[in-house]
Fold this sequence. Notes:
There is one protein chain. The protein is mainly alpha-helical. It folds into two domains: 2-30 and 102-167, HAD superfamily/HAD-like (Rossmann fold, 3-Layer(aba) Sandwich), CATH 3.40.50; 36-92, DNA polymerase, domain 1 (Orthogonal Bundle), CATH 1.10.150.450. It is 53% helix and 8% strand. It has a three-stranded parallel β-sheet with strand order 1-2-3. Strand 2 (118-122), helix 7 (127-137) and strand 3 form a beta-alpha-beta unit. Helix 2 packs across helix 3 (56-70) and helix 3 packs across helix 4 (73-81).
Amino acid sequence: MKFLAEACRQIQQSEIKPAAWIFDFDNTLFSSGMEIFPLINEKMTQYIEHHLCVERSEANRLRKLYWDRYGATLTGLVRHHAVDSKDFLKKTHDIGELDSFASRSSRLIRLFRQLSGKKIVFSNSPAEYLEQMLRLLGIRHFLSEAFSIEATNMNPKPSMIGYRKLLK
């Protein structure tokens, strides 16, 4: 967070005047790696085990392979196994009450308040999860858009298709 705030401050003090700020979400605006990602990864592994009828080790291997290859496990599952993307997102991101993972951040709120121009969050997360987390962090009202994996038509970062949809 300190690095993000410093980078934004330096840009604002320069001659560059951004018309828009595009932020990644997970592990940029808040730390999701220690608590949320392990839960979601476990749900993904279980989903793959059940829907593809494979052993746990194979499910885990596929989850990691597709994450590395496509930037999102979902992309590989849809492409290679015709998995229903909406069902996958709903079941793998149902991790209970999200307020136990995120809370209002006065530093983040102050940063967003100080930035001029449009503010957009671009995430590979599903819309429902993303919207709820942004509200819990207290920054949703600063954003002109919260661009989720659904908004990319399931073409997540780093796919250029997703970026093109964002920039339209």
